[in-house]
Amino acid sequence: MARISKQKACIACTESKRRCDKGLPSCTRCDDRDVDCHYPVTKRRRPRPHEAVGLSEAAVSSAAAVASPDLFSLDAGPLSIGLGSNPWIDFGNLPSDVNTAQPAAAPVNPQASAPLPQQAPNTTTSDTDRDPVARDIARSKWFLAPSTWRIDHLPTPPRNIYPTSVLTNFTRGLQTWVHRWVLHGHNPFIHRSMYAEGNYFPSCLQDAFTSASMYHHKTPQNEAFVYRILDERVTAMMASQPVTDETSLSVPLLETRDHLARVQALFVYTVLRLFDGSISQRAAAEVHLPTLSLWCRQLWDSASLDANALSENLVPVSKYCNDMSAQRNNPRDEDDTYDSDLSTYNLWVLSESVRRTWLIVTCTVGVYATLKGSWSECPGGALFTARAGLWDAPSAPRWASLCRELAAGNKDAYERLTREETQTGGVGGTCCDGTFFVPSFHSEGLFRNAAAADVDEFARHLFTIIWGLDRVESWALNTASAGEVCLTY
User: Fold this and answer.
1) Per residue in 225-237, pLDDT tens?
2) Reduced to 3 states, what is the DSSP secondary structure of residue 384?
3) Distance CA 477, CA 473 (A)
């Protein structure tokens, strides 16, 4: 007899991290808000051989109730909530007796556990027998570990080191990227899978998308209407967001994905208006720069808290980075590999989107201040994935295949890159295989050990304002045999 599953909270309450009364057909909270109320589907599992022999139905039900915690009660933060919410991972595909990385509680009555010696906790369980969610997050440790969310700062550089042409090329690149997002649904800081069909696509970003599309059809005859719509869209978005101050993370109010969406939306508006020829649009965009910086800090802090929560609650020792490569020989069937690749890919896309958005926003604010003739303090640098092909991979299997290919080849060069980054004061030791997971301010090793064509467009564009356009161009020319790249827009 299959165990009776505990009723899970509805999806809407789970995503908003609010208490659900689990009413049927609709919970009170969803009913009050006039939203559709759906509960996660619970699938039956096959009884294990040792459970099917010599156990009464009551004993099986009692043991399962003790050993199987509620997945959605884990204190793993919004990232794990996002992982467990459609379309990140369908928990219906997981075994119903899935365990966390923590041991199950012992039965209260010692006599009750006597007939069930097979149910005793096994402290030597291998990683392949762990909770699939915990195992998949363990695969993601190279980009989710709390140490990878550290912001590094450089000593104050000399002033006036970049000509205006370098800065204006950077802003033209941003405008090109926003236009590319409108045309293809994808650019170097907004990933196609984040808001693909069936995925979470908040209204603030939908409005930004349609506004950007409208802006790129602007003519002298209709620009007054375009500017008016832009102004009203930004005003409406600002009014719809929670009011917070400098000391508030607004974490109880927003999940990390909500933070990411509103920062990306406001940044799109900022690029459209700040670098437009209209003085009024530029002035209006300047008013919201402090808000953009505040939201960006809150986004980073929210993601950091999520990473800490995942590390403390769900992440076992990783076997997927270089120093643990000897443990990679666990057999996995094809379906298990696909599901694991998909969940790791989705976590990476979310994590990398946060990193790239934070980097591009902070750099843009600094570049604009420099163009105005003022001096901006360095906001710091962060780790991100600089390897070409990973961000633009069209699917999770392609992404996973490229990761495995990079892990198998050119290992000596990547290990040399890792050592150099560590010696220069970076945290390049977290670089996992050939993904070029490097700190933005300590990435000089790429100039010596990688070709410009092997580095992502986002990284090359970022390097033009970190190291200078001339130096990046020299690197691109010296490594042109691996492929030519364009650095100007």
Assistant:
1) 999 999 999 999 9
2) strand
3) 6
